[in-house]
Amino acid sequence: MVIRERLRKVREYLADERGDALLVTNAANVRYLSGFSGSWGVLYISEEYAELITDGRYIKQAEEETKDWPGEIHIVAQGETLSKRILGLAPKKLGVEKSITLEVYTKLVDTLNDTKVFPVEGWIENMRMVKADEEIVKIREAIRAAEKAFETAFNIVSPGCSEFEIAAELEYQMRKLFGATPAFDTIVAVGERAAMPHAVPSSRTWQNGELLLVDMGAVMHGYHSDFTRVILSGELNSEVYRVIDAVEEALISAIDGVKPGVRASQLDGVARGVLEDRGLAQYFTHSLGHGVGLEIHEGPTLSPSADLELKEGMVFTIEPGVYIPDEVGVRLEEMVLLTPQGAEVLTSLPRRIEV
């Protein structure tokens, strides 16, 4: 029923644009509308017809994953191109997602001489922002997998280990315990290297008296998780603690401000205002957060320019950070679900961990 309702909404968009059909090419959108997770597949959706188009590598997978898909499955034959298949379906006005490659788009336009092709952006992405109950269950499982892997790994790693070793242990435990894959390249950064928001793990070792920053997540059933924690070994200098306290205050203030109807830019402003009061706002160099679901970064975006009104059922991160070059970097990140009462924090690990 969930997939049928999603298709109904797609057809409403088509009717508004007076289009005959939509070609869905974004892999996350294909999965959202059909259940299919193969690396190559597109959806053709018209007013009365729907078809998953894939190739012979995915015959069995398509059958197993699309039990709720009310349309057909078309396996392209040898020598048959996507353009030829769409030509056979004969749409007069075809919407094409902007995620399509220029090469495929050019072939479509050249082949579909009698079809008007128009670009589509945001239709399904906007639908995906509000999560169904079954999606929230999968997100919770992805969070549990990453958090359990984190706890297990930090019973094994300790000061003296390199960033390489710590990242490897975290990802190994996700796979070993849950069969989960990393949601992104795990970020492990020691001391001054944590001032790089997307630091790549190196041979740098973690020593007593240093901060360790870990940003990680897992993928379960196609859905992602994402959190950031700081681990403190020994006694650190007072400036590090000052920055941690400021970032945590910004995080808590933003979480407290989460309500249905609040603008995304307002939340960003709340966190930024706390850091401004602490003289640290100039070191907060990214937006406050992002949606998480079938993709690690999706809508809504929480940034100074984001005018979007937040709605019940949205799942997003809140992750203020302070990055003082060559000195210290601190980011604390929670995932929250927007409920009628406000933010339900889905992540549960302590924000700062003393070892």
Write structural notes for this entry.
With 355 residues, the chain is of the alpha+beta class. It has two domains: 127 residues, Creatine Amidinohydrolase, Chain A, domain 1; 222 residues, Creatine Amidinohydrolase, CATH 3.90.230.10. Helix content is 35%, strand content 24%. It is built from ten helices and 20 strands. The strands form six sheets. The chain has a six-stranded mixed beta sheet, with helices on both faces. Strands 8-9-12-20 form a four-stranded mixed beta sheet, with helices on one face. Strands 7-10-11 form a three-stranded antiparallel beta sheet. A hairpin with a 3-residue loop joins strand 2 and strand 3. It starts with a helix and ends with a strand. The model has no long low-confidence stretch (mean pLDDT 96).
Strand elements, count: 20
Strand order of the largest sheet: 4-3-2-1-5-6
Structural domain count = 2
N- and C-termini, Cα separation:
49 Å
Query: What is the CATH C-level name of the largest domain?
Result: Alpha Beta
Roughly how much helix do the residues carry, as a percent range? 25-40%
Judging from the principal axes of the Cα atoms, what is the shape?
elongated
Determine the mean pLDDT. 96
Point out poorly predicted stretches: none
For this structure, the CATH topology of the largest domain is: Creatine Amidinohydrolase
Strand content: 15-25%
Radius of gyration: 23 Å
The string of secondary-structure elements, in order, is HEHEEHEHEHEHHHEEEEEEHHEEEEEEEE
Largest sheet: 6 strands, mixed
CATH architecture tag of the largest domain: Alpha-Beta Complex
Q: With helices defined by DSSP (H or I, 4 residues minimum), what is the helix count?
A: 10
Based on secondary structure, the structural category is: alpha+beta
Task: Give the CATH superfamily of the largest domain.
Answer: Creatinase/methionine aminopeptidase superfamily
Please state the oligomeric state of the protein chains shown.
Answer: single chain
